[in-house]
């Protein structure tokens, strides 16, 4: 079932539809359903999924699980030095280690421990997103990691915090990535703690994400909250809100980091209460409505990528020109992780450049972070590969947060992955002869159709000058600071 909340019913542009708690589709889909007076869509299945070659499917699955798969974003080395691992990287999402527990697990704490590759039954321990996203204070509240149906990479936090019931939301819940941590970022002085250091961030975000689910709001990949911060810190609200409305909003709660401010803020957005609620119309709309001008678009901390009002998503900090090209091709934040999964794998630069040469014809396809070099043919191939793989994964319903299997955690494979695995699974499931080259061509057709449809809707063929635009701050940014854009 996919359902909308009050935000969709009230035609809020930044609204979504919810399929299950913490699983939603955004980008205004809630408002589209609401405009049709459609509250929910229910689908009841009556048959299983036909598999052409079950034995081959099982063999491929075992191969993937024991030799190829890593952690969230297919990071293939642990975040801490471990006895089995040749390499480690503190930024890796393979966070399992000795002494790190699911602190609120049923029956008592469960240690994540050292999880060397090879054992399929322990893959789900590798990723620990509540601590990764929210810090050590989240450990005591974490029940387990969960995820999308049947996915072995458990990237969804599941927490139990009895205290959040005081704010009128369920004590359980969780999410991953931005939805896990964005809600308390609006507090200029940080969220107020309750009992332990930094527990205000954990508690405040569980309240926020449960409210987001209930109302069916969408954060535009964190841009909603950055827009709020910009408008508050720059005095925009004081300028555009009617005096009576401005006076009734509890700005003192905001300054104090009081979670009750989040409750009131989200209620106003979902129910279109007052001028403030237009914040959920989206960045392009508020820039026009509130006359924000170039100062808004060019403000680096606001992280707006496009003058159409969508934000960065692994852009110029992610292989420079590669991430930049990828982000220009779509009509919202690009939701493409093909390149960032490779960049963030945790393997040393020398190995990554060797893999880049094998894939794109030259080591010069891959730059060291913060040490970017001019564009070249290999980088163009790298960018094209990134785009086509996300189109393919969206079409065949594979997760681009894990796929493709570009690299491997196994030293015995020289850390090489298997980029033909999609084609192998496709053949096993459908029975249709398939090669990776055929799938790449299908993905290219999908991408071409997407661009053609954009041309049709915009009524212009000049994509370079009218669509593929970048906000000015990107060109003024010190390359040495680029890494701080990574989300």
TrEMBL record:
Gene Ontology terms, MF aspect: 4 iron, 4 sulfur cluster binding; electron transfer activity; metal ion binding; oxidoreductase activity, acting on the aldehyde or oxo group of donors, iron-sulfur protein as acceptor
Domain Aldehyde ferredoxin oxidoreductase C-terminal: 111-477
Protein keywords: 4Fe-4S, Iron, Iron-sulfur, Metal-binding, Oxidoreductase
Stretches assigned to the Aldehyde ferredoxin oxidoreductase N-terminal domain: 2-46
Cofactor: [4Fe-4S] cluster; tungstopterin
Name by which UniProt lists this protein: Putative oxidoreductase
Species, as recorded: Escherichia coli
InterPro entries: Ald_Fedxn_OxRdtase_dom2, Ald_Fedxn_OxRdtase_dom3, Ald_Fedxn_OxRdtase_N, Ald_Fedxn_OxRdtase_N_sf, OxRdtase_Ald_Fedxn_C, Tungsten_al_ferr_oxy-like_C, W-dependent_AOR
Family statement: Belongs to the AOR/FOR family.
Ranges annotated as spanning the membrane: none
Domain of life: Bacteria
């Amino acid at each position: 079932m996919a359902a909308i909340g009050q935000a969709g019913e009230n035609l809020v542009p930044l609204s979504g539809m919810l399929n299950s708690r913490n699983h939603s589709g955004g980008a205004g889909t809630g408002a589209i359903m609401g405009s049709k007076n459609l509250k929910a869509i229910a689908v009841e299945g009556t048959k299983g999924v036909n598999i052409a070659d079950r034995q081959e499917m099982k063999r491929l699955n075992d191969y993937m699980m024991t030799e190829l798969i890593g952690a969230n974003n297919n990071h293939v080395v642990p975040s801490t030095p471990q006895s089995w691992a040749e390499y480690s990287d503190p930024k890796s999402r393979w966070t399992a280690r000795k002494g790190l527990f699911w602190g609120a697990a049923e029956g008592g704490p469960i240690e994540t421990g050292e999880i060397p590759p090879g054992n399929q039954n322990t893959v789900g321990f590798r990723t620990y997103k509540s601590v990764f996203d929210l810090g050590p204070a989240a450990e005591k509240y974490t029940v387990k990691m969960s995820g999308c149906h049947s996915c072995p990479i458990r990237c969804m936090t599941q927490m139990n915090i009895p205290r959040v019931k005081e704010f009128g939301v369920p004590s359980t819940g969780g999410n991953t990535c931005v939805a896990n941590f964005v809600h308390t970022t609006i507090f200029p002085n940080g969220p107020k703690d309750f009992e332990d250091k930094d527990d205000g961030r954990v508690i405040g975000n569980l309240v926020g994400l449960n409210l987001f689910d209930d109302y069916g709001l969408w954060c535009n990949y964190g841009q909603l909250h950055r827009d709020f911060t910009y408008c508050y810190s720059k005095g925009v609200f004081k300028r555009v809100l009617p005096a009576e409305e401005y006076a009734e909003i509890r700005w003192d709660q905001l300054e104090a980091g009081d979670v009750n401010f989040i409750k009131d803020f989200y209620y106003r957005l979902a129910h279109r209460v007052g001028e403030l609620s237009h914040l959920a119309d989206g960045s392009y709309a508020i820039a026009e409505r509130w006359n924000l001008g170039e100062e808004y678009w060019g403000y680096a901390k606001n992280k707006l990528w496009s003058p159409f009002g969508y934000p960065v998503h692994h852009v110029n900090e992610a292989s420079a020109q590669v991430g930049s090209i990828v982000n220009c091709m779509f009509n919202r934040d690009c939701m493409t992780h093909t390149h960032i999964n490779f960049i963030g794998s945790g393997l040393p630069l020398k190995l990554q450049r060797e893999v880049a040469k094998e894939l794109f014809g030259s080591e010069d396809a891959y730059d060291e972070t913060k040490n970017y070099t001019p564009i070249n043919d290999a980088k163009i191939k790298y960018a094209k590969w990134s785009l086509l793989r996300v189109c393919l994964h969206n079409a065949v319903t594979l997760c681009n947060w894990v796929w493709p299997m570009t690299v491997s955690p196994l030293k015995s494979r020289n850390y090489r992955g298997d980029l033909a695995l999609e084609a192998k699974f496709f053949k096993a499931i459908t029975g249709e002869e398939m090669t990776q080259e055929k799938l790449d061509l299908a993905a290219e057709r999908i991408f071409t159709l997407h661009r053609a449809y954009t041309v049709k809707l915009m009524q212009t063929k000049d994509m370079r000058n009218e669509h593929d635009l970048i906000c000015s701050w990107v060109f003024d940014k010190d390359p040495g600071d680029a890494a701080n854009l990574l989300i």
